[in-house]
Amino acid sequence: MKAISSMATRLVLADLMAAAAAERLARVDVESVGGVDAAGRVAAGEAFDLVFLASGALSRLAADGHVDAETVTPLVLSQVAIAVPSGSSEKAVRPDGPAFADAAGLRDALRNATRVGYSTGPSGTALAKMIDDWGMSSELGDRLVQARPGIPVARSLADGEVDLGFQQLSELVGQPGVRILGVMPDDCAIDTVFSGGVATASADQARARKVLTFFASAAVAPIKAQHSFGVPA
């Protein structure tokens, strides 16, 4: 079986697929690319059995008939975290705690940053909108640096291209050259639910449904936690 996903879930999906294979449900090969590219390939008719994307993107594919709407299932909850290069003097906090006390503290950090990195995915879109709502887009100007599709913000931080980066916590944990300050403050948190769905082009929809049900089960919750994902309510 074939599946496609955004980069944000590639590592947790690898372990979930291994668990599915161990349960003899199916062997699924997952290709992980930028979320925009993944949605575009599914919309273009490329044959996949399962699709894993942010809930909004998956719902749009379902509305257009590329994914079976009845199968769309929330799988993991991801928080956006804030990180700096590992050599930065910024003080780190618990990775699962807020990086700053509140939105005001975050705005100060944005103003003090030389270059701010953010992703092309839904979290990046939400961050850009938040900055615009705060009236800071013009103030920050070209200091806002959007990562290229499929390129993690962690790499931009490690390479010194940006000195403050925003991306899914799961994408930052364990990456070399970065230090996580924490997640977004509670009053401006950006959370994303990633879901899975059976592609209408699947040649074995019944088996794909079984895999998806397994991925939503309590049996694999520890795998999700190991990758810093929560379970959607």
From TrEMBL:
InterPro entries: ModA/WtpA
Matching Pfam families: SBP_bac_11
Top-rank taxon, per record: Bacteria
Gene3D superfamilies tied to this protein: Periplasmic binding protein-like II (3.40.190.10)
GO terms for biological process, alphabetical: molybdate ion transport
Gene Ontology molecular function terms on file: molybdate ion binding
PANTHER family to which the protein is assigned, alphabetical: BLR4797 PROTEIN, MOLYBDATE-BINDING PERIPLASMIC PROTEIN
The protein's name: Molybdenum ABC transporter substrate-binding protein
